[in-house]
Amino acid sequence: MWLSYYAALPAMSFALAAACYYTAPAWMALLGRVLLGMTIGGRGWTAVALSLAGVLLAVSPSADTFTPMLLLPLAAAAFYALAGLITWSQCRAESPGAIALTLNLCLVCVAAAALLPLSLFRPGGTESFVLAFWPRLTLADWSLAFVLGCLLAVIATAVATAYRVAPTPVVGVFDTAYLGFAAVWGVILFGDIPTAREALGIALIACSAILMSGRRQERKDHDC
């Protein structure tokens, strides 16, 4: 997922990459239906459609920017959805801390395995984003990496908990709230006020989350 997403960023705007990546709820619903036989229902599909429409409005991707590189963030969304489905269907009895630790250990091992041949053969020289070897890091770089690593550990634990206790499409729709939080922090920290189009997109995403939440509550009441 991360490799596909990061590899796409140099080739397109962040907004367009994010729009493709946040098709993850649709992938979750589709893969959940095909692989696990999950029933989404009309209300759930409406919530997914609202979420996707909100993402498209918020990031305003251009119709004439479609290139084969767009397959990379779309693949990242599909891999993310698949990871969520595996977690929800197979790991609900596992500790969130154990899941998060295993995930990060796997990331470290895979990254180390990839960095070894890059350090020996340097196929991308110094210009390639994906194939270039790491530059020399300063103390400030290592400090920033440590802080980001701690934040990622918290995020991974929280996400693992969510996918253990809730159906994957539900978590996927709520996950798109990232765009809303990004807008809020943008206003608070950088004075970047969303346009009317962006605000409408964020509102649609919020509506989809509320709709999906209501659907989940109705299911709980029915089970009781």
Describe this protein's structure.
- With 224 residues, the protein is mainly α.
- The chain has one domain.
- It contains 10 helices and no strands.
- It has helices at residues 2-8, 14-21, 24-36, 41-59, 71-90, 96-121, 139-165, 168-175, 178-190, 196-223.
- Helix 3 (24-36) crosses helix 5.
- The longest helix is centred in the last third of the chain and has 28 residues, at 196-223.
- The radius of gyration is 19 Å and the shape is globular.
Q: Ranges with pLDDT <50 over ≥5 residues?
A: 216-222
Record field, number of beta strands: 0
Number of domains: 1
Largest sheet: none
DSSP strand content: under 5%
Shape: globular
Order of helices and strands: HHHHHHHHHH
Mean pLDDT, to the nearest integer, reads: 78
Structural class, from helix and strand content?
mainly alpha
Multimeric state: single chain
Rg of Cα set: 19 Å
Helix tally?
Answer: 10
Question: What distance separates the N and C termini?
Answer: 38 Å
The portion of residues assigned to helices is over 70%
Organism: Salipiger marinus
Protein name: EamA-like transporter family protein
Keywords: Membrane, Transmembrane, Transmembrane helix
Transmembrane segments: 6-32, 44-63, 69-88, 100-122, 142-163, 170-190, 196-214
